[in-house]
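Before the break, one more example. Copy the sequence into your notebook; we will annotate it together after we see the structure.
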Amino acid sequence: MKFLQKIILFLPLVFAIFSNMAKAEMVDTFQFHNDADRIRAMSLAKSLRCPQCQNQNLLESNATTAYKLRIEVYEMVNEGKSDQEIVEIMTQRFGNFVNYKPPVNEQTWLLWGMPVGLLLLVLSAIVWRTSSKRAGK
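Here is what the structure looks like once it is written out:
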């Protein structure tokens, strides 16, 4: 009897440990005209960020929003729209946030200029520090 009680106490622990390994995904069953379109659509979905998720692209995200947008991208590719047109449509709807490679313009200059500015600041601090050490000797 004690053995059965131990098993009953032990089973929920086993299920809790192994439940982390079970994963569910939405499966795309979209039919493309050819393999080149499928590859292009998947590449585009990979280059667009999910507006609902943090730092996941449309291809990786399991969110319903990402699934719907992924299907939309697939449909636009099947319709013959260019990559640029599709990216512009998504950017118009969701802003530059959806694009992993936002354009350089008045809204994003700080995003692009910050790394260069920080690099110049670090280099000038190094030069200033080494020159002050030399002057002190």
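The mean pLDDT is 84. The radius of gyration is 26 Å. Try to locate both features in your own notes.
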